[in-house]
Amino acid sequence: MKNIDIVVPVISARYDELTPVQQKLVDDARSATARSYAPYSHFNVGAAILLSDGSIVTGANQENAAFPSGTCAERTACYYAGANHPDARFEKIAIAARGTDGEEVEQPIPPCGACRQALLEYEKLAGHDVEVLLAGRDAIYILPSVSSLLPLSFSSF
Ligand code: THU
Known about the structure:
Layout: E1 11-13, H1 20-32, E2 44-51, E3 56-60, H2 73-84, E4 90-98, H3 113-126, E5 131-135, E6 140-143
Parallel strand pairs: 4-5
Antiparallel strand pairs: 1-6, 2-3, 2-4, 5-6
The structure holds tetrahydrodeoxyuridine (THU).
Tetrahydrodeoxyuridine is lined by residues 38, 41, 43, 45, 61, 63, 70, 72-74, 111-112, 115.
């Protein structure tokens, strides 16, 4: 028997420490929170994905009176990207959120498990790491890949 320690490498950065490309993606994720439809949770999430063709696609959570029918911001964005830019690879993704008070969350919001699994599929398709930026008011977390957010992931059968 042996222990296997899984380490998740996270850089905590300030906005002004980001590259211009990272700043733009965070800006777009923050802007996308305004296009959230969240009349039930009042929790507005935005996601922005930089693609290899240079375009940035955004998504926001879309809720539904039949609760499970709603979709998170990350999956809205990644399925839009897959459907509209099928030949482009994912390069980076940024995620931002505003809480029920309408203000940006103080600490970054990590994506839910289902969104990690969905994003992982597009990282596999890209064939390289897809950087993840989780934006909060007080810190922006930078993770090197989607797979680092989902260790021991299921990816083939
Ligand atoms: N939500 C997201 O959009 N992304 C996440 O990663 C976590 C949660 C949304 C789903 C729902 O509309 C609201 O936030 C509250 O859970």
